[in-house]
Amino acid sequence: MTDQTSGRPTVRVTSEIGALRTVICHTPGPELLAVTPSNREQYLHDDIIHLRQAQSEHAQFRAILARFCDVLQVRDLLAEIVDREEVRRFLVNQVMEVAPSEPLGGELYEIPGDQLIRRFIEGKEAPRGPISQLLHKVSYELPPLPNLFFTRDAAMVVNDGVIIGAMRYAVRWTEELLMKALFLYHPLLGNGGFIYDGTEERRSDYTIEGGDVLVLRPDLAMVGLSERSSPAAIEGLVEGLKEKAGIDHVVVVVLPAESPAIHLDMIFTMIDRTHCVVYPPYFFGPQRLPALHYRPGGQGVKAHDGIFSALKQVGVELEPVWCGGTHPTLQEREQWSSGCNFVAVRPGIVVGYARNEGTMRELQDKAGYRIVDATDFLAGKAEVREGDRAVIAFEGSELVRGGGGGRCMTMPVCRDDIW
């Protein structure tokens, strides 16, 4: 789909750090209330999130982003297209493959658009029979989506193309369908087509999620082989990146099978042309992760004993900033609380959680970044100018309980080219 006036794609992301122009977010809502101590692992959450506090934190996060770019909301975008017959038919038919139920399908075809969106995001409880009532159990005809506020995972833009994630766990499959509908039908999201369509995958060994896909240059991507993204899917993705997005080089980072980092962006994010934030044990010393330089089109794979060696081979030399600073305890604590997971709004201007104080000190003392309190920034007491190096630090003590940070909560659809 293309812009109706220019005939050109309206999405474009060629780096992790180019000036952010348009981003998709989702404010967490009542779907979070489905998560309990007994089912939190099923819903992939580290803890129980207090909804109102999380919404307050997310509102501040969006307000920061809005100073730099247009912030689109998943619910709003869906509301603008869901009453079109072909969109509703697509969504209901696809969701019925995830949660097959003839009565539910009939209901979804008939209810008003706002209720339909609420059903998709907040789920629908199954009727509680005598056994469920006796055992105090709740089940769902259509599962809620308490991870939807991590919009990065279910879709990614690479150059002018789109990757629809193939989510590792079934509780997130509906997220793929909602994102696919937006990129298929919404006029603001014209694109060059799907590089990879995870909604077509239902094989357990074919999974890819957006936290494992980083775009470093128009010709270069990094992909994490993690708990959530599998070798077979990555191989298919790499070839698609070459054929449909013009990516000539892919650096594949091999994460440990047992790791606190579920995605690559939980141990590595790029924050400027020359800086990245990393989790030190995975980049230095005996636990250093291997990396593969993958050349699509049958040109082969070359193994490297570290990520920086592989990046140097393709002309990228980065100075690492250590998550948590130099102390192993702080490194481990702050990696767990998304201390590596920054989102760049401009080269050298990033947004992240204030709670990761060791990482903030390292950014300030070793790399020259100003630490700017989010409240001061929004109140006009602290200014961030083009060309500055700065971290806008916001409170996220509830949001982080879901297991992600600023990069996870943003799906950029338009950035300025910088290379």
CATH 4th-level superfamily:
L-arginine/glycine Amidinotransferase, Chain A
Backbone shape: globular
- Report how far the terminal alpha carbons are from each other: 25 Å
Secondary structure tally: strands: 20
Structure description:
By secondary structure, the protein is α/β, with parallel strands linked by helices. The protein has one domain: 5-stranded Propeller (L-arginine/glycine Amidinotransferase, Chain A). Helices cover 29% and strands 21% of the residues. It has helices at 51-66, 74-79, 85-98, 102-110, 113-122, 130-135, 173-185, 231-245, 307-313, 328-336, 357-367, 374-378; strands at 20-25, 70-73, 124-125, 140-142, 155-158, 161-164, 194-197, 213-217, 220-225, 249-254, 268-270, 275-278, 291-295, 300-304, 319-322, 343-346, 349-353, 370-373, 390-394, 411-415. Strands 8-9-10-13-14 form a 5-stranded mixed β-sheet. It has a 4-stranded mixed β-sheet with strand order 16-17-19-18, with helices on both faces. The chain has a 3-stranded mixed β-sheet with strand order 2-1-20. Helix 8 links the parallel strand 9 (220-225) and strand 10. Helix 3 runs antiparallel to helix 4 and helix 3 (85-98) runs antiparallel to helix 7. The radius of gyration is 21 Å and the shape is globular. The protein starts with 19 loop residues before the first strand and ends with a strand. Residues 4-8 have low confidence and may be disordered.
